[in-house]
Amino acid sequence: MFRTLSLMMVVSMASSLIGLPTAIPLHAETAQPKQWAIVIHGGAGGDPSRWSEEKRNARLDGLEAALNIGRDLLASGGSSLDAVEAVIRSLEDDASFNAGRGAVLTQAGNAELDASIMDGRNRACGAIAGVTTIKNPISTARLVMTDTKHVLLVGGGAEAFAASENVPLVDPKYFLSQRQRTPQEPDPSEHPHLGTVGCAALDSEGNLAAGTSTGGTPKKLPGRVGDSPIVGAGTFADNASCAVSGTGVGEEYIRNAVAYDIAAQMLYAKRSLETAITEIMTERLQPGVGGLIGVSHDGQIVMQHNTPGMSCAAADSNGRFETHLMLDNGGRPAADAAKPIDAAKPIDAAKPIDAAKPIDAVKPTDIDEAEIRRLIGQQADAWNAGDIDRFMDVYWNDEGLTFCSGGHVTRGWTATLQRYKRRYPDPTTMGNLSFSDLELQRLGNDAFQVLGVWQLTRDVTPTGGRFTLVFRRFDEGWRIVHDHTSVRDAP
Ligand code: ASP
To answer: What pLDDT digit, counting tens, does each position of 444-470 carry?
Structure first.
């Protein structure tokens, strides 16, 4: 791909054979323009064909504008680090992406931003997490790298550092201004882990850099930090191998040290960037978890996702310039095309299915079952933490939800929430909830029936009974669409 470099190697080898000095200055023997490459992502997640045309265009326009900035910088001899920062700043200022201005909100209804940047020349890196007033987190991450001896600053300390560096700070309302949302009124079009931004670049001096910036996952717990500011998980750059940035369920990227693993595969197993990323996307991460972009030290660009879509873009010194909302076969090489990505797979695989099981032994059915069991467990945890709102997250947030208990039928998510709050007004009445004897039965590709037993241990009359749930798969994951609960007869 990079003729200059391979030509140099040949000249260099020939020189050493005939005893001439081998130190040839970079590009000295050819008048060819220097080589550079850049790749960007704007988040992996749901199927863009389901978006409005307006949203699709906004995404494509944002990617193109950012790519133009990166291309111009690199083509005029700018550094990969400057290109990564400038590209990400542009995407942070664009409310169509989940970073900076357009960041998604926590359960508490505010934006908490994370970002990291890494310099492939020397593995210098900087990151910030959980900040609420920094307009362009990527630039502060870079200042952490250049102006402190640290790698990661969080929360108030990061904000104080940013203030001391005179970076633009904003009122936290700035991040709400585009979308007047409250945690009680989630945006129904919002998709989990969609819209994080990242960039990886190779400049004409052969230096790599990568960066990632995000608002994290929608309705995350306050204080939750994902992979984006974690060097080695969501971002990595090393001139010896590659520069990469990830997007998806951050917990999975942290557990698998994804970004570093790609570099390690290249260094130790001598794999190409494409092979390394394909291995992670198909063998290591569960379907539906996310996407990756990267540039190798020799300018190979790779973009892959195992979600239905990923906003991404790429350009290089050979004239390549392209933007996408999804890639054919998730961007995997043709040789791997025999295994199509199943767009119907769950998106929100927020926890490993079974840590003791090798990943490739987990069949798709197991993945769905495990996810449903996890959601039911999450409900019990939320209940026992006194958090009925979080308990309700697992229900379909729609007027079509049917909740049937004690001979009464309640329709709709809001009415069901109110019913719960009426019947369980305080921790004493809520008691401690447990579920047992779960029996899952698949009803086609996108639905499950679940039978089980519930038990409420509390000081006031303990109670319990059986339930039947119907789960349906939505873009945002599995949700209960029908709940029929009975109270067991007193013994
Ligand atoms: N990886 C990000 C996080 O977990 C989210 C995303 O990429 O959409 O915070």
So the answer is: 888 999 999 999 998 888 889 999 999
In short, whether 247's Cβ falls inside 6 Å of ligand 1 is: yes
In this structure, how many other beta carbons lie within 10 angstroms of the beta carbon of residue 295?
Answer: 30
| E-assigned strand segments in 27-144 | 37-45, 113-119, 124-131
> What does the pLDDT average to over 333-351?
49
d(CA 287, CA 285) in angstroms, rounded, equals: 6
DSSP class of residue 488 equals P
| Separation of CA 195 and ligand 1 centre (Å) | 8
CA distance 365 to 33: 52
Do 126 and 145 touch, CB atoms closer than 8 A? yes
Q: Which of 140, 196, 323, 416 is catalytic?
A: 196
Main-chain dihedrals φ then ψ at residue 164, nearest 5 degrees: -70, -20
79 CB less than 6 Å from ligand 1?
Answer: no
- How many whole angstroms separate alpha carbon 49 and alpha carbon 484? 34
pLDDT in tens, 373-430: 889 988 998 999 999 999 999 999 999 999 998 888 999 999 999 999 999 999 889 9
Annotate 18-37 with DSSP letters as a single string.
Answer: TT------TTTT--PPPP-E
Query: Which domains, ranges and CATH numbers included, belong to the chain?
Result: 37-337 (3.60.20.30), 365-489 (3.10.450.50)
For 98, phi then psi, to 5°, come to -90, 70
Predicted confidence at residue 174, as pLDDT, reads: 94
Strands 124-131 and 152-154: parallel
